[in-house]
Backbone:
């Protein structure tokens, strides 16, 4: 009985030590573990010429597409601060105004973030289009406000881009 | 609790549970796959791509459930020397590795169209990949010794050390900025997923869970038989 107790004590102490060590390590490396910085983080700690990732919401009404080109500009916001971003290339399906986005690139001297890679971030909300529509009609302040008026499920990013642009000229 | 660590008593209960678990799993898989892939609505943002979730999320839950139970078994094996605990951990390991692989694969297939990338090194994805390697490492380690008792002991220690990864996986999306979205079902304030999508998801979760129980019972039976063969052989040789 005493040997079992002793083994249990050793095990509990070892796990406690390991857990503490892990917690300390992870909190020490916090800046390296985060996948992206928010516009506020960037304002507090300017990255200089380094390539970094920034993330936040695409500000509603800020998305502009270059005439005939693949270049888009928009504002990324964390609601406290926002940052202008430009990107040339194909946009992911979920990229739209009011939704999360992660952009990798460099902050230019003019304060514009030139993104070389763009990833869409999905939130934790899952619902059918008719529910999203109903929420929108009820004037719900949440995300469903960004659903296109048609309410049809949109599979292709391109299609959605145009509808977003149309609703927010 | 220790009563059920007796292999003979365990087998009696397990054999009674086995057909029920297998039957429940079959029924729930058929119903869950039909509801999830055909009858449930598309998502307002993701369209039909949301259906990958009905495989991805149960697989992810099971990958963490399996590892957690293996870690508890490892602790029981180290403290109380229950032989059944070691047999369980060995039986569950390939299943857990399979769930983790399925989770990573389906996640990648979803990420390509939705995020715009197959893979990123964010905290959630990386910690799940570490979980996959822990399963593979455990399976390699337990069989790497001539003396099975030493292999089991080394494996049990690895399982306990790796257990720190489980809370990291779960809370990675809250502690750090990640590309992966936060939890939708097990969160404070209730699920953020519509009921018409939650029910197929829960059915699939029951299907995965009962599949796990059915197969792990079969594998424990085989593991106990293998141990008995080994003991008999040693007796003959001695």
Residues:
């Amino acid at each position: 009985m005493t040997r079992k107790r002793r083994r249990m004590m050793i095990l509990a102490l070892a796990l406690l030590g390991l857990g503490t060590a892990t917690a300390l390590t992870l909190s020490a490396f916090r800046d390296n573990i985060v996948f992206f910085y928010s516009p506020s983080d960037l304002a507090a700690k300017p990255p200089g010429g380094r390539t970094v990732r920034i993330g936040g919401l695409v500000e509603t009404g800020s998305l502009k597409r270059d005439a005939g080109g693949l270049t888009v500009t928009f504002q990324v916001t964390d609601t406290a601060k926002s940052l202008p971003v430009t990107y040339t290339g194909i946009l992911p399906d979920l990229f739209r105004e009011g939704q999360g986005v992660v952009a990798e690139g460099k902050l230019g001297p003019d304060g514009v973030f030139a993104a070389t890679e763009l990833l869409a971030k999905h939130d934790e909300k899952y619902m059918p289009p008719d529910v999203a529509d109903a929420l929108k009609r009820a004037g719900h302040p949440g995300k469903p406000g960004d659903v296109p008026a048609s309410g049809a499920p949109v599979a292709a990013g391109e299609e959605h881009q145009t509808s977003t642009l149309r609703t927010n000229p | 609790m220790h009563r059920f660590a007796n292999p003979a008593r365990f087998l009696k209960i397990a054999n009674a549970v086995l057909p029920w678990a297998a039957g429940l799993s079959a029924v729930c898989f058929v119903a869950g796959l039909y509801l999830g892939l055909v009858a449930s609505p598309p998502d307002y943002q993701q369209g039909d791509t949301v259906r990958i979730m009905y495989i991805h999320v149960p697989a992810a839950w099971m990958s963490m459930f399996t590892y957690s139970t293996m870690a508890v078994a490892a602790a029981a094996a180290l403290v109380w020397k229950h032989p059944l605990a070691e047999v369980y951990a060995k039986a569950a390991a390939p299943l857990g590795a399979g769930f983790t692989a399925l989770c990573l694969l389906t996640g990648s297939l979803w990420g390509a169209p939705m995020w715009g990338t197959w893979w990123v090194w964010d905290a959630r994805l990386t910690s799940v990949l570490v979980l996959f390697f822990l399963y593979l490492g455990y399976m390699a380690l337990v069989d790497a010794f001539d003396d099975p008792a030493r292999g089991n002991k080394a494996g049990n220690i690895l399982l306990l050390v790796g257990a720190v990864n489980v809370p990291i996986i779960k809370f990675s999306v809250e502690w750090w900025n990640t590309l992966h979205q936060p939890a939708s079902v097990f969160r404070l304030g209730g699920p953020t997923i519509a009921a018409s999508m939650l029910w197929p998801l829960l059915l699939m979760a029951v299907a995965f869970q009962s599949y796990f129980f059915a197969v792990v019972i079969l594998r424990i039976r085989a593991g106990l038989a293998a141990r008995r063969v080994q003991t008999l052989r040693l007796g003959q040789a001695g």
Observations:
- The two ends of chain B are 35 Å apart (CA to CA).
- Chain B touches chain A through 44 residues (CB under 8 Å).
- Residues 116 and 168 of chain B are 25 Å apart (CA to CA).
